[in-house]
Amino acid sequence: MKLITYIHDGAERVGVLTADGAAVRPLPFDSMQALIEAGRGALDEAVQAANDPVPLAGVTVLAPIPRPRQDVICLGINYAAHAVEADRYDKALAKERPETIYFSKRVTEAPGPDGFIDSHPGLVQRLDYEAELAVVIGRTAKDVPAERAADYIFGYTVLNDVSARVLQTAHKQWYFGKSLDGFTPMGPCILTADEVAFPPALAISCRVNGELRQRSNTNCLITGVADIIAELSAGMTLLPGTIIATGTPSGVGMGFDPPRFLKPGDVVECEIEKIGVLRNTVK
Q1: Which long-range contacts (CB under 8 A, 24 or more apart) does 228-233 make?
Q2: pLDDT value at position 92?
Q3: What fold, for 2-62?
Q4: Which of 2-6, 173-177, 211-215, 262-266 has the lowest mean pLDDT?
Q5: Which of 29, 41, 71, 147 has an alpha carbon 20 to 30 Å from 181's alpha carbon atom?
């Protein structure tokens, strides 16, 4: 099923999309975080009882988790071809590392589909896009072996890891250059994990002003979803609602010669098979 957060009649709600995607049926949870924490059994019961669908055209769709309760956990350089282009742009970004690269993004409020990416004029130069598959954890995960990782996944969404490349490289770590307001668009929905075979092998792409820039498949991840969850949960507790962005394929703006960074007015469309399109305009 596809779950969304939306605004209708001035109130923020959560709901499940109808099979044709044309309407949303409201669900009795205060937020997507509350829905996830309630567990799959409560969700299934609520979906069975849901009625009075509202046309999707009559609501404003937000990011599925608009205000994550913790920073988003991200992976850097997790597609081989992206490692090549990152090295070409700045060798400090993609120098050989024996271990997975993890970092985090602070998210005050995530833009949703058709929301805006703030270009932060005067602060940001070299604004870039990164289409990514994001994993949403469904229950408390600690010391999870890789073979059981799928049991802890609530679902998947699309995330654009917007990046300020000058800030990212100037500060010698990635937190500031990845965490500015409006830099984590997500959506359009959470696709529940039961809708996708594990590990997920989904086509992923990004278009800028209609031009295809990124195209790959999530089966090309260097560190796969199961290993990510196993490695992280060996040292930290992953709480329900935790969002893990799994990395981006090649084709980001810094990968072109010369680089092709975003500017105000550009429309960025990140798409993942079965989940949908996350469309945002740079302002």
Answers
A1: 228/75, 228/100, 228/135, 228/149, 229/135, 229/137, 229/141, 229/144, 229/146, 229/149, 229/152, 229/153, 230/144, 230/145, 230/146, 230/149, 231/100, 232/73, 232/102, 233/141, 233/142, 233/143, 233/144, 233/152
A2: 60
A3: Vcp-like ATPase; Chain A, domain 2 (3.10.330)
A4: 173-177
A5: 29
H-only helix segments in 55-198 = 80-89, 91-94, 165-170, 175-178
d(CA 164, CA 168): 6
Domains in the chain: boundaries = 2-62, 72-282
- For 72-282, the fitting CATH number among 2.170.150.70, 3.90.850.10, 3.30.365.10, 3.40.50.720 is 3.90.850.10
Non-local CB neighbours of 191 within 8 Å, separated by 6+ positions? 1, 2, 155, 156, 157, 274, 275
Give backbone dihedrals phi and psi of 194, rounded to 5 degrees, phi first: -70, -10
CA distance 115 to 185: 8
pLDDT level of residue 89 (50, 70, 90 thresholds)? low
Q: Looking at residue 270, what is its pLDDT?
A: 98
